[in-house]
Design a protein that fits this description.
It contains no helices and ten strands. The strands form two sheets. A six-stranded mixed beta sheet has the order 2-10-9-4-5-6, with no helix packed on it. The protein has a four-stranded antiparallel beta sheet with strand order 1-3-8-7, with no helix packed on it. A hairpin with a 6-residue loop joins strand 5 (about 45-50) and strand 6. It has strands at about 5, 10-15, 20-25, 35-40, 45-50, 60, 70-75, 80-85, 90-100, 110-115. By secondary structure, it is an all-beta fold.
């Protein structure tokens, strides 16, 4: 069973930057379109960004476009989310997983990102 482990979250002032990392046993980032999701308190989990496994094509939610960048290190099996110009509304627990719902793995613990104004 694939175990996803997210890290890199923290407390940041608005306008700051953070880089999240996601690791997993097995080279899943080479064979699956992977994505970042987030869940704010009292809200449903939402899509943030995704990267295609074959062509490295990327997709972003409108709310983060131009501020967040998804990337991957296939050699070391790490998925990244670089978050710049953070806003208080970015506060959430961030998760990585397969983009396609039918291909999802068990959700990890996520990493908390808190942005203060």
């Amino acid at each position: 069973q694939v175990q996803l482990v997210e890290s890199g979250g923290g407390l940041m002032q608005a306008g700051g930057s953070l880089r999240l990392s996601c690791t997993a046993a097995g080279r899943i980032f080479t064979y699956y379109d992977m994505a970042w999701f987030r869940q704010a308190p009292g809200k449903e989990r939402e899509f943030v960004a995704a990267m295609g496994w074959k062509y490295d094509d990327t997709r972003y939610a409108d709310s983060v476009k131009g501020r967040f960048t998804i990337s991957r290190d296939t050699e070391n099996n790490i998925l990244y989310l670089q978050m710049n110009a953070l806003k208080p509304e970015d506060t959430a627990v961030y998760y990585c997983n397969a983009e396609v719902a039918s291909e999802r793995f068990a959700w990890g613990q996520g990493t908390q990102v808190t942005v203060s104004s």
